[in-house]
Amino acid sequence: MSGWPADECDFVLVNYERTTPRAFDAGLRRFAGAGAAAQAGSVASSFLGSDPVGTTAAFALPAVQGLALHEVWLSEGIWRIRLENLDETVDYGLSVHPGNLPWLAKSHVLPNGLAWLPPAQDRTRRS
User: Fold this and answer.
1) d(CA 75, CA 96)
2) Residue 102's pLDDT is what?
3) How many CB atoms lie within 10 A of CB 13?
4) Is-contact 101 109, C-beta < 8 A?
5) Which band of pLDDT confidence, cut at 50, 70 and 90, is reported for residue 75?
6) I want to staple 109 with a disulfide (CB 3.0 to 4.6 A). Which of 13, 21, 58, 113 is the partner?
């Protein structure tokens, strides 16, 4: 379960490296104060390798998809990860999660492992 405030993107992850692969029933429940619109979906991760250096790749997020998962294994240490919004019309987010838990939600991130990148027009208004 994960329950972020209204109008926020939220998700729950299943780590099949740490639990038996099987089918899951998933649902969406509206609570008081939640936004009127909701979208539920399921996506699988794409493995990008271990300890990447330099630019990994450019990815596009289809209009009807709210989440894209890219799995990267990182060695212990300090990592700098940069998310660039090349399209400048989507409010992208990036989260880095530990790989040792079977169930993860948006809140289960490594320290300083969650960030948002607003569209360009929002960045100019906020500065």
Assistant:
1) 13
2) 93
3) 19
4) no
5) very high
6) 113
Q: Which positions ≥6 away from 60 have C-beta within 8 Å?
A: 87
Proportion of the chain above pLDDT 70, given as a percent: 80
**Three state DSSP letters for the chain:** CCCCCCCCCCCEEECCCCCCCCCCCCCCCCCCCCCCCCCCCCCCEEEEEECCCCCCCCCCCCCCCCCCEEEEECCCCCCCCCCCCCCCCCCEEEECCCCCCCEEECCCCCCCCEEEECCHHHHHHHC
Q: What is the pLDDT of residues 19-36, one digit of tens each?
A: 998 888 877 776 666 666
d(CA 73, CA 109): 14
Residue 122 identity? D
pTM, to two decimals: 0.72
Return the residue matching tokens 């008081």.
Answer: 32
How far, in Å, CA of 2 to CA of 8, rounded? 11
